[in-house]
Design a protein that fits this description.
408 residues; alpha+beta; Thrombin, subunit H; 7-stranded antiparallel β-sheet; 8 helices
Length: 408
């Protein structure tokens, strides 16, 4: 009986894949064995003997590699339809600047001086992923930070859709976009609190804003990192508790999903290190869930507000300000000259410049456990109790938090 052509091709591809995997494993075994023989005298002199895998162990390794490769392929096939490439466009007149050498874009794209001023040109891009079937998309705030740009998304199927910004959360570097339509495939949000170093992860993104749906694979290299993400205009956002990964993340990957082998999104890719290789960072998905929930419930991001400007204390900072407290949050003036905002929860409760906030609801405030992180765990309307050091004595202050104002 003649097999269908497609089936034969499938068998051929599978056969080639198996051959490659088996060849890699057997080759590795041979190299290890050969290396062991070359250095046998040295090994034996140290009391060691060469390790040679048995046929059963070789078979087990082959099965493990095939299973892992199959899991990776299945995860990518499941999540890829949820991932979009974000396209950033601006009018020609808003992009080009002139110098002695011609016309150049501040984004780094060369443009032609004879183009009409109202022509939209592509100046950058990023990545996002659907979180609802009716078109809500998560990405990084720094991807869509330019208020003068026009944004669109290209779906996995190649369809380009106009996108509008629903909400941004600069403190988390997260933005929510919306596109018209229904029936999109949302991702499954995982639990970033249970991920561990060494765990396999996969990144999908619009690499270099040119290569859509690029898939890279690696491991979680570290947890709880502090990194800085830069906006298009050079402003920055400090991201705490970031996930470090060696899955290749390039410009354009920002806003894309970092997923585990169950196909769950555990992070939002956001930054790379310019000082090293294979060092990328992602925002833990648990930090993103509240932003998503707020937008779905209220239509905007809801943040608790205390109303103070502060710096975290350590021995060096304490010496600079000539105070005895070496940990806590020191209330100081901002560059605008404000330490405590008038008519704020902190102002109404009587907090003053020079106060040191030591405890919040009994929890110690330190550089590793800063005031902002603790406040973010609450909601507007929640009542908190602070222990405050002022001029050598301690006191307790009760404060009712309010919603962060949009005009600050």
């Amino acid at each position: 009986m003649e097999l269908p052509k497609r089936f034969v091709q499938t068998l051929f591809i599978v056969g080639m894949s198996l051959s490659a995997v088996i060849g890699a494993v057997v080759g590795s075994v041979c190299v290890l064995t050969f290396t062991g023989l070359l250095h046998a005298d040295q090994w034996l002199s140290l009391g060691n003997t060469p390790t040679i895998l048995s046929p059963e162990e070789v078979d087990s390794k082959i099965v493990e590699l095939i299973e892992e490769e199959g899991a990776t392929i299945a995860v990518v096939e499941r999540v890829a339809p949820s991932v979009v490439s974000i396209v950033i466009k601006k009018e020609q007149a808003d992009v080009q600047i002139s110098d002695d050498f011609g016309f150049y874009s501040p984004y780094g794209f060369e443009v032609t001086p004879d183009a009409s001023g109202d022509t939209l040109i592509e100046v950058g891009g990023g990545t996002g992923f659907f979180i609802t079937a009716d078109g809500f998309i998560v990405t990084n705030q720094h991807v869509v930070a330019d208020p003068d740009a026009v944004y669109s998304v290209i779906t996995n199927s190649g369809q380009e859709l106009s996108a509008r910004i629903v909400a941004t959360d600069p403190l988390q570097d997260i933005a929510i976009l919306d596109v018209e339509g229904e029936g999109y495939v949302p991702v499954v949000l995982g639990d970033s609190s249970i991920i561990v170093p060494g765990q396999t992860v996969i990144a999908i993104g619009n690499s270099l804003s040119e290569f859509e749906n690029t898939v890279t694979k690696g491991v979680i290299s570290g947890l709880d990192r502090s990194v800085v993400a830069y906006d298009y205009d050079g402003s920055d956002t400090v991201i705490r508790h970031a996930i470090q990964t060696d899955a290749a993340i390039n410009p354009g990957n920002s806003g894309g999903p970092l997923i585990n082998l169950l196909g769950e999104v555990v992070g939002v890719n956001t930054a790379i290190s310019s000082e090293g290789q294979s060092i990328g960072f992602a925002i833990p998905i648990n930090d993103v869930k509240k932003t998503v929930s707020d937008v779905q419930t209220y239509g905007h991001v809801v943040r608790p507000w205390l109303g103070v400007h502060y710096t975290m204390l350590n021995a060096e900072v304490a010496a600079e300000f000539e105070i005895t407290q070496t940990q806590g949050a020191l209330v100081i003036r901002s560059e605008e000259g404000i330490a405590v905002y008038a008519n704020s929860p902190a102002g109404d409760a009587g907090l003053q410049e020079g106060d040191v906030i030591l405890l919040l609801n009994g929890e110690l405030i330190t550089e590793e456990n800063p005031l902002g992180d603790l406040i973010y765990q609450f909601a507007p309307g929640d009542q908190i109790t602070m222990k405050v050091w002022r001029s050598g004595s301690e006191r307790e202050i009760t404060i009712t938090l309010e919603e962060y104002p949009t005009d600050l």
